[in-house]
Write a structure and sequence with these properties.
Blueprint: H1 2-5, H2 9-51, E1 56-59, E2 62-66, E3 71-81, H3 83-91, E4 98-110, H4 114-120, E5 122-131, E6 134-139, H5 155-159, E7 165-182, E8 189-205, E9 219-232, E10 238-248, E11 253-263, H6 266-272, E12 277-288, H7 292-298, E13 300-316, H8 333-339, E14 343-362, E15 367-384, H9 387-392, E16 395-404, E17 408-417, E18 425-431, E19 434-435, H10 440-447, E20 449-465, E21 469-489, E22 494-497, H11 499-509, E23 525-530, H12 537-552, H13 557-604
Parallel strand pairs: 5-7, 6-7, 13-14
Antiparallel strand pairs: 1-3, 2-3, 3-4, 4-5, 4-6, 7-8, 8-9, 9-10, 10-11, 11-12, 12-13, 14-15, 15-16, 16-17, 17-18, 18-20, 19-20, 20-21, 21-22, 21-23
Length: about 600
């Protein structure tokens, strides 16, 4: 077949020409590979040094340019900051907050056009793939805003003498080993990440994009994804896990799926900490219109909204909490927000279908009791610590809807003053109808009282408070309230009924209805409650409400004092009866001893 093909002269000429052209292409490719590789290396080093104003240097062991395949392979790349240049910039107050160090075993550049680079000074690249990158980032707060520098040219203006433009279609970094060191706090905080993927799309540096605010680092979109991240808190008491995290600069959105915060066992936790123990799981977290560049550079958190959806938060009160020496006003939300020590501004925080459970251990009953707020949804407005934002609006408004003990619907409206030195706030609420026996899981172990019957029709409260006191109105309507007073049964590790105390409470103390008669005027009570310095926020609110609820059901101060005196008398009488019983036993024992002695004398006589 070949012989016949080469029999004709035009076939032989065609074959010779083809072989000659292919040979020339191969020779040219080999020549270009050996000639252009050093040029490429010098170009890359020059671009990095020029665009970073001498802050970074890049080195690599070798580079291969494959003209026919239109690709470049660079081995053992090392991007490092120049320490001397960094210190010099730091003295001039021009040093960046973030320093980057990058090591790459192999970098593959595809669809590159060397002739375009050489003759037209345009760097055109289809895709860059980084294999096994190791990225180390250190953060130090050198300045809180953009500094004015002598050379305020854009990166394009700095490279325009050697390159007219740089365009890269995609940059792919897979399975990154990432280490982050934060030097902004009292001690260095180190985070290490694995299974981190980073993709940058449509990077373009030219005269048009040098001022394009829609791009981040000149990329149309940067997507970072993290899978199955687990770490421990600095004190080792908590483990937190994230199933999936994704950040997109194009949509300015941060999404987190499956966030879990889990503490160590109770015995270990409470032996090492006097703080409350938290357990939390959230199905999803979404941060919208997140200004990532501002956060990356200056740790300023700006976002339009934060959405927390479907989950549970459990708080276990620490039984080892001692009398605090400092004012626990830090537990107020409008104070605790500033304890985070972060410059933040979130217009709206939304919560969707969150269950909140608070559990506490009672030494008196030797049992735990829980209060739950189920299916909680609502919004927090103007969550901010930013001074400029606070000058415009110092109020943070909260509206929540939940189900108390998974029964009665509770609506809350709270307004916090974020700049008032007295930490003032207002609180309004409405609790709908529910069976009062549902609160026994809290009242029995924590208050030693069991509600045997009772129907809440409505609870309304309107309070005005600050860190010193709370005043307001409490209106509670109910029917057929009856209780049983309990005491610990150490024999059976249970709670048992105090018959006399229960009878006395239901007969002389408890007001069984409000209003007392159908259609009558309900009892409304105004509260004026003073806070002690050791009282945290939620206890302060709860005690304020109780100071209005107790008189409504008959437990005003006068009645409580009388009840305490009565119970004390009952205890004294019981103790007296016990003493008399013991005395009678002693007298009987003495008489038996005397009779035995007389019998013994008769026998010996």
């Amino acid at each position: 077949m070949t012989v016949k093909f080469l029999q004709h002269k035009w076939q032989r000429v065609t074959a010779i020409v083809s072989i000659t052209i292919i040979s020339l292409i191969l020779i040219i490719a080999i020549f270009i590979n050996s000639y252009w590789s050093p040029i490429l290396a010098n170009k890359v080093k020059d671009v990095i040094s020029t665009s970073s104003d001498g802050l970074y240097t890049v080195n690599f062991s070798s580079a291969e340019l494959h003209v026919l395949r239109g690709s470049v392979v660079i081995y053992n790349i090392s991007l490092k900051p120049d320490t001397a240049a960094y210190n010099r910039k730091k003295q001039q107050h021009l040093a960046p907050n973030n320093l980057v160090e990058l090591h790459i075993k192999r970098l593959t550049i595809t669809h590159i056009h060397p002739f375009t680079l050489y003759f037209h000074h345009r760097l055109e690249i289809g895709e860059i793939i980084l294999n096994s990158p190791e990225l180390n980032v250190s953060y130090q707060l050198n300045h809180t805003k953009d500094t004015v520098v002598k050379d305020n040219r854009t990166p394009w203006q700095k490279i325009s003498k050697s390159l007219h433009s740089i365009h890269i279609g995609d940059i792919v970094l897979g399975d990154i080993k990432f280490k982050y060191e934060d030097y902004s706090g009292n001690k260095v905080a180190i985070s290490t990440l694995k299974e981190l993927n980073l993709n940058a799309h449509d990077l373009l540096i030219d005269s048009a994009t040098q001022t394009d605010q829609s791009r981040l680092l000149y990329c149309r979109d940067i997507v970072a994804e993290l899978n199955n991240y687990t770490a421990k808190s600095p004190n080792g008491l908590y483990t937190y896990h994230v199933n999936h995290l994704k950040l997109s600069t194009l949509t300015s959105q941060l999404n987190v799926e499956g966030l879990t915060l889990k503490p160590v066992g109770s015995s270990v936790f409470f032996s090492k900490s006097t703080k409350n123990k938290f357990t939390m799981h959230l199905d999803s977290i979404q941060l919208n219109h997140f200004d990532f560049l501002n956060y990356h550079k200056y740790r300023i958190l700006n976002a339009s909204s934060l959405v927390l959806s479907k989950g549970t938060a459990e708080i276990f009160g620490n039984p080892n909490i001692t009398q605090p020496k400092t004012d626990r006003v830090a537990t107020f939300p409008n104070v605790g927000l500033f304890k985070i020590k972060a410059d933040m501004k979130i217009d709206t925080v939304r919560v969707n279908h969150i269950n909140v459970v608070y559990t506490e251990y009672s030494r008196k009953s030797n049992k735990t009791g829980s209060i739950s707020f189920n299916n909680t949804s609502g919004r927090f407005l103007n969550v901010t610590t930013n001074p400029v934002a606070l000058q415009k609006n110092s109020m943070s408004a909260i509206q929540l809807s939940t189900y108390f003990m998974n029964r009665g619907k509770l609506n809350l409206w709270i307004n916090f003053n974020l700049t008032d030195t007295n930490n003032s706030f207002t609180l309004k609420g409405n609790l709908g109808p529910m069976d009062l026996k549902a609160v026994n899981q809290a009242t029995m172990p924590l208050s030693m009282v069991k509600i045997t019957s009772g129907r809440l029709k409505q609870l309304d409260f309107d309070l005005k408070a600050d860190k010193k006191k709370a005043t307001g109105k409490v209106d509670v309507l109910y029917n057929d309230l009856k209780v049983t007073v309990l005491k610990p049964d150490t024999t059976h590790d249970n709670l048992k009924r105090q018959t006399i105390a229960s009878l006395y409470a239901n007969t002389f103390i408890i007001k069984h209805d409000n209003p007392d008669v159908e259609g009558g005027q309900p009892r409304v009570f105004y509260t004026n409650f003073s806070r002690t310095f050791d009282m945290p926020f939620f206890k302060f609110v709860w005690q304020t409400l109780l100071s209005g609820i107790k008189p409504s059901v008959g437990l005003d101060k006068k009645t409580q004092d009388a009840t305490t005196a009565m119970m004390s008398n009952q205890v004294i009488k019981k103790q007296n009866r016990k003493i008399k019983k013991e005395q009678r036993k002693e007298r009987r024992a003495k008489r038996r001893a005397k009779r035995a002695a007389r019998k013994l004398e008769k026998v010996t006589a």
